[in-house]
Amino acid sequence: MNKTALRKKYLQLRSEFSIEEIDDKSIQIANIALKLPIWQFNNYHIFLSITEKGEINTEYILHILQGKDKNIAVPKTDVKTNSLSHFLLTDNTKIETNNWGIPEPKDGIPFPENKIEVVFIPLLAYDKLGNRVGYGKGFYDRFLASCKKDSIKIGLSLFAPESSVIAVSETDIPLDYCITPEEVYCF
């Protein structure tokens, strides 16, 4: 199945969950995340969920990070360049929803990509090798290419991996882990 078909398939599958079901699965994902060997780091990046697209509710992982007193960077999109900038999430950070339904910081303290040690990544699908399919604009591939080479890349998904290998391009960057409500996949 090509990436376009996978996007359509998983957007449809996610739309079949109620907000309550996604919330329950998001709590399970956060609890499973606690078992990963990633909590010794200081600088984390996490996306803010697009509820209308059935994304995992990342507020539970955010609470864990805040409780562990970690530095948390959140992205802001630039749709003209298909790039992300990152801002430190603080008590004073104002979050607004942009024209595409993405919650993001209005402004704040810039956070350098090369300081990020762990990245929680949104995705639609992934395979057993850690190849992932996002929304198709390459925001995260460009961002991950700018991170430290040893940054830990963690996908969050409601589903198990695709059984067939997803076709990749040379700019695609694979995951190290993917957390589902049932288990962690290591790549």
TrEMBL record:
GO molecular function: 5-formyltetrahydrofolate cyclo-ligase activity; ATP binding; metal ion binding
Cofactor(s) needed by this chain: Mg(2+)
InterPro entries: FTHF_cligase, FTHF_cligase-like_sf, NagB/RpiA_transferase-like
Protein keywords: ATP-binding, Magnesium, Metal-binding, Nucleotide-binding
Gene3D superfamilies associated with the record: NagB/RpiA/CoA transferase-like
Binding site for ATP: 3-7, 132-140
EC number: 6.3.3.2
Protein residues bound to substrate: 50, 55
Broad enzyme group: ligase
UniProt-listed GO biological process terms: folic acid-containing compound biosynthetic process; tetrahydrofolate interconversion
The keyword ATP-binding appears for this protein: yes
Pfam families in UniProt: 5-FTHF_cyc-lig
Domain of life: Bacteria
Catalytic activity: (6S)-5-formyl-5,6,7,8-tetrahydrofolate + ATP = (6R)-5,10-methenyltetrahydrofolate + ADP + phosphate
Transmembrane spans: none
Similarity comment text for this entry: Belongs to the 5-formyltetrahydrofolate cyclo-ligase family.
Protein name, as recorded: 5-formyltetrahydrofolate cyclo-ligase
Gene (UniProt): ygfA
